[in-house]
Amino acid sequence: MAPLVRISVLLVLILSSASVAGQARDVYQFDSREKEQRFQALNAELRCPKCQNQNIADSNAPISKDMREEVHRMMSDGASDEEITNALVSRFGEFVRYKPEVDSRTIMLWATPALVVFIGVVIVALTVRRSGRADTSGDALTDEERARASRLLNDRDKRDHSS
Amino acid sequence: MYPELGQMALILALLLATLLAVVPLIGSLTGREQLQAFARPLSAGLFVFVALAFAVLAHAFMTDDFSVAYVANNSNSLLPWYYKFSAVWGGHEGSLLLWVLMLAGWTLAVAVFSRQLPPAMVAQVLSVMGMVTVGFLLFTVLTSNPFDRILPNVPADGADLNPLLQDFGLIVHPPMLYMGYVGFSVAFAFAIAALINGRLDAAWARWSRPWTTVAWSFLTLGVALGSWWAYYELGWGGWWFWDPVENASLLPWLSGTALMHSLAVTEKRGVFKSWTVLLAIVTFSLSLLGAFLVRSGVLTSVHAFASDPERGKFLLLLLAITVVSSLTLYAFRAPVVHARARYEGLSREVFLLMNNVLLVAATLLVLVGTLYPLVLDYLDMGRLSIGEPFFSLTFSPLAIAAGLLLGAGIFSRWKKTDGGWLGRKLLWPLAVSMLFTASVLVGYGEFKPWAFAGIFSASWVVIATFFDLWEKSASRKGRLHGLRRQSRSYYGMVLGHLGMAIVMAGATVASNYGIERDVRMSPGDTAEVGGGYQAVFTEMGSRRGPNFTAEYGRFEILDSDGQLVSVQFPEKRQYLVQRSVMTEAAIDAGLFRDIFIAVGERVSDDAWAIRVQYKPLVRWLWLGAIFMAVGGFLAISDRRYRLREKVQKSVEPPAARDSEQTPGKPAGATS
Amino acid sequence: MKRVLMFLPVVLVIVLGVILFAGIGKDPSRLESALIGKPVPQFSLADLRQPEQQLGPELFQGQVSLLNVWGTWCPACRDEHDDLLWLAREKGVRIVGLNYKDNREEALKWLSALGDPYAINVYDPRGSLGFDLGVYGAPETYFIDAEGIVRYRHVGVINEKVWNAEFQPLMEQYGGSS
After folding, report:
1. Which terminus of chain B is less hemmed in, N or C, by CB atoms within 10 Å?
2. Which chains, if any, share at least 3 CB pairs under 8 A with chain A?
3. Which CATH superfamily is domain C29-174 in?
4. CA-based torsion, A17, A23, A29, A30: positive or negative
5. Do C24 and B309 touch (CB under 8 A)?
6. Is C113 in the B-facing interface, judged by CB distances under 8 Å?
7. Using 50, 70 and 90 to split pLDDT, how confident is the model at B666?
8. Phi, psi (5° rounding) for residue C88?
């Protein structure tokens, strides 16, 4: 009985490993899906220092490969996104960060959309208020102006037809 | 012999452009009609000579004339004939000539399609276009002559076109893009003319609108083609990287969209005139800025032309003269007096103003984000990178807000909309959108806040648009009659907005629910792609193309039932002349999803790193753009642009006009 | 007041123009080293010629040196090699070599064929020190002062012009003899 069980277990293991062997493994492996997603997100945020504007996820340059491996190594060791980014920035400079830190240098950058929208809304509010005070009585043409317009238009039609 | 002819043609064109810039303008300012009348023939002559120069260059490419330096640098005898032709604009000098050809073409178009405009106005507009053309022709002739020869040592063969450019994308993307960029020079010219002659009124807006809309449509197509081309050509499945060159094409598009909407208000209500003129100047200035950024080398980009500091300086000078002089003219001559129109908080005017606010915020965001590294470097504050993560985070809320505004704004009325009434109108669309969004998220499996916002905004636009269409097409003579009664202008707007919603939906879903994997595969392995698909790597082979050799992988795509969906052959090509290695991705394209496979590096004797991606709704990005462009073209084919009959009607007293329903325009209609 | 506001766009554009002009001709891909003002990172790597000897940052103590990152696979390194020889022999500059991602035999063959300007060579086959230094493309040359602090990095080929413009002032500042 025991040897039979052993052989069956062995067979099952061999057979199941054979089907697993056909499944492609990720180039960079992680023990959890969450880490895998973090890895991809982080790679998209780090810039290849050598390339013409590519992140390390998309670049084939050797330095990008080195950086990806470092990210992988650190992430597998349990480092946080911030620690990994800082480690690379300390070696390659702020240049490799695609998402700039919010500091005194970059505050104007980050604030731009909100600032513009705010100013815009204020301007719109002011123009609405100002238009409310507009004198609208003079909008319509008077009969005399209408007759004059009609004459002018007929005139132009005549000129165009004759030329 | 021919290249010299081309060079002479350019110089003659420069001469004609100079005359065009000066003579009709003087004629319009002094009231001398004979001088004004020079505008049209000069425009025609200019076009003829520029077209001749272009034809000569094309001929040099098609006949492998390697004595011309530009041909030798960008072509090769082994190049297929269709790439030889598009190689004309494959490098800096030739693409500049394409710009000039487009400028001359648009100038001629304005000359031809402006019969109903006052001659003095036409003279001014054409003169301004002539001025712009002079600038570009000077730049071409003095610094970027495509006809320079390499004599007497004519090379036996050319250096070949960059393999990345040997693609269908090169045939269509630059021409469409330039049609858009250069097309905005017409709106610019109209604006400058209005500032010069002081007649900035609803008629000016009416004349400017079709030109702006058609340029916008071309630019929409151009940008979309660029995105599509980068997607399949660059090999990593990205469709928008917020790269400086990409941003350079987006800037005039964002500003141009604001301009289009602002012109609508100025035409209808006679307000926002100063603002609209400023937008027209800014939009074209952004086109010029784009041309500068791409060619000057100040910013790093995968898409940039080879840079030359001398050319960069000249181009910057050209840009500076154009923009500074037009903005100075604006500062002095733009009306400061406000129009006597009255509109309230929830009026259509305000909705369109807010649309402009959001679009301007988006424009400034992209502009600041693109140029910020340059500014910091100038201030010696170090090197910074601003890329996709920054832009996605900041741009998305603006886009989503624009969609929400649009849906509500569709129901708004000119001058005044009752808040309560609007709110009630929006209840049904709100409910339907919520339901629809929830079901989409359930369908894709995961709740993501950004996905929710994006899809909700997109469906909100679609549902509000259809609700509005439903209401407007109500008619006693039946629904079909009601639909037919709507103007082309209206349908253009409908398509344009639907297009935007489709783009937003595609961008949201592709970004949030796309799956990318880098897997190590040997022949025989299977990779799970996402969306239920599997990719089976069966073998690696090699083949020979017209001017390259390639190693390809054979992949079978199976769906969740194990059925064969398609067979894909991603490859790595080595081009014979430039000896560069290119990755050609294989894409199984579908309306609702793409499956993207690219071969990476060889990791061992029998294993390669393969990139497999599942990209849901990615095609919607470009489909939506097509909708938008078609909408634009449809709008300008509207009857109202055939002007004559309408003139009489507008003279009748308002009381009579309101009771009579102008065909195709039920009361309260838009655009 | 309103009229004054109308001039705002022109003013902004002029400012932008100045900034753009300043950017022309600069190389946007040249990066300043993140290690300037910091000591050479800790490392323990073999000597190229004497594999059993381990080298560390103490190499840089006591005198000013150049750290030149090179490899036989790098064509530009070949270009600058003669200039390095000139620097070492004519100018007496101490050049420490970092043989980056290379093969030991190839590197030794190269040096014996072309001449050896290096006082000492660190063998970094996996590029670990290179990575820690932030090397992104050979050739690169670091200027390291007598305390082992990185003071400057030049990316690209070194030649007489570069030496005079960029390194000579540093030599004077940090007390190197030349």
Report:
1. N
2. B, C
3. Glutaredoxin (3.40.30.10)
4. negative
5. yes
6. no
7. very low
8. -70, -45
Q: Residues of chain B whose C-beta is under 8 A from some C-beta in C?
A: 274, 278, 282, 285, 292, 296-300, 309, 312-313, 316, 319-320, 323-324, 327-328, 330-332, 334, 336, 371, 373-375, 377-378, 382-383
User: Please, what CATH class does the domain formed by A27-96 belong to?
Assistant: mainly alpha
C35-58: per-residue pLDDT in tens? 999 999 999 999 999 999 999 999
CA–CA distance, B501 with B624 (Å, rounded to integer): 7
Between CA B109 and CA B81 the distance in angstroms is 30
The H or E element that residue B548 is part of is: strand B548-558
Rounded to 10 degrees, the C-alpha dihedral B650/B655/B656/B658 comes to 80
Q: Which of B583, B575, B648 is CA-nearest to residue B160?
A: B575
Whether B388 and A55 have beta carbons less than 8 Å apart is answered as: yes
The span from the CA of B348 to the CA of B366, in Å, is: 27
Distance from CA of B141 to the nearest CA of C (A): 21
Concatenate the DSSP letters of all residues of B326-348 into one string.
HHHHHHHHS--SPPS----TTSH
* Mean pLDDT for the stretch of residues B174-182: 95
Residue with tokens 């030739």: B94
Residue B561 tokens, joined:
């039932």
Q: Report whether B271 contacts B337 (CB < 8 A).
A: no
**Measured between beta carbons, which residues in chain B are less than 8 angstroms from residue A113?**
361-362, 364-365, 394-395, 397-398
pLDDT (tens digit, 9 = 90+) per residue, B28-45?
Answer: 999 888 898 999 999 999
Report the C-alpha gap between A50 and B217 in whole angstroms.
37
Separation CA C4–CA B419 (nearest Å): 37
pTM above threshold 0.80: yes
Q: What is the ipTM of this complex?
A: 0.87
A86: nearest CA partner in chain C: C34
What is the distance between the alpha carbons of residues A108 and A119, in angstroms, rounded to a whole number? Answer: 15
Q: Is B643 on the interface with A (CB under 8 A)?
A: no
B434-to-B24, B403, B497 alpha-carbon distances in Å? 58, 14, 19
C-alpha to C-alpha distances, B232 to A151, B227, B584, B619, B660, nearest whole angstrom: 61, 9, 8, 12, 54
Task: Give me the residue label for tokens 């069956």.
Answer: A8
Cβ–Cβ under 8 Å, residues B283 and B211: no
- Is A132 in Cβ contact with B344 (below 8 Å)? yes
Rounded distance, CA B263 to CA B259, Å? 6
Our CA-based measurement puts residue B521 at a distance from the nearest CA of chain A, in whole angstroms, of 5
Q: C9 touching B, CB under 8 A? A: yes
Whether the ω angle into residue C125 lies within 30 degrees of 0, i.e. cis, is no
The residue type of A71 is V
Residues of chain C contacting A52 with CB distance shorter than 8 Å: 29
As a 3-state breakdown, chain C gives helix, strand, coil percent values, each rounded to 5, of 40, 20, 40
Instruction: Record the tokens describing residue B485, joined without a space.
Output: 């009664």
DSSP state of A50: S
Beta bridge partners of B598: B611
Could you give the CA distance from residue B213 to residue B217 in angstroms, rounded to a whole number? 6
**CA B473, B475, B477: angle at the middle one, nearest 5?**
125
Dihedral sign, CA of C7, C8, C9, C15? positive
CB < 8 Å to C127, chain A: 66
Q: Are B451 and B384 in contact (CB under 8 A)?
A: no
* DSSP H/E element including A114: helix A107-132
Classified as helix, coil or strand, B440 is helix
- Mean pLDDT (chain B) is 89
Q: Convert B412-446 to b/e letters by CB count within 10 Å (16 or more is b).
A: bbbebbeeeebeebbeebbebbeebbeebbeebee
Task: Rounding to the nearest 10 degrees, give the CA dihedral for residues B262, B265, B267, B273.
Answer: -60
